[in-house]
Amino acid sequence: MIDGVTRQIALDPAAQKVDTGSCGSTSSGGTFQQELEKAQAHQVAFSKHAMERAEERGIEVTPHLVSRLTDSVERAQAKGATNILALDRSLAFIINVPNNRVITTMSQDEMKENIFTNIDGAVIL
Q: Which three-class secondary structure state does DSSP give residue 100?
């Protein structure tokens, strides 16, 4: 019988290279640092423009918000979307799905007069 770690190594040649540095190993065979970097690679990131808009508009970019946006990107990606509007009651985010990057963000007041263009999907947060 093959356990999960052995199976991963058998199926994924890249998983055979395990760094046993000072971070220690995780149960999946890599170091904690490798697992953290892998998880961060899938997280949504904010462009410089989006960060500036968030600051100007008083939008706090919290780990919870990033998690919600990352989830919306994953759901949109599963449907084949490339540019989405992620929307909740008070905030809107335009996200480029292939790059996991927030392009811009808006608060509720700014949404009243805006038209969203160049999107092929919308996700309600």
A: coil
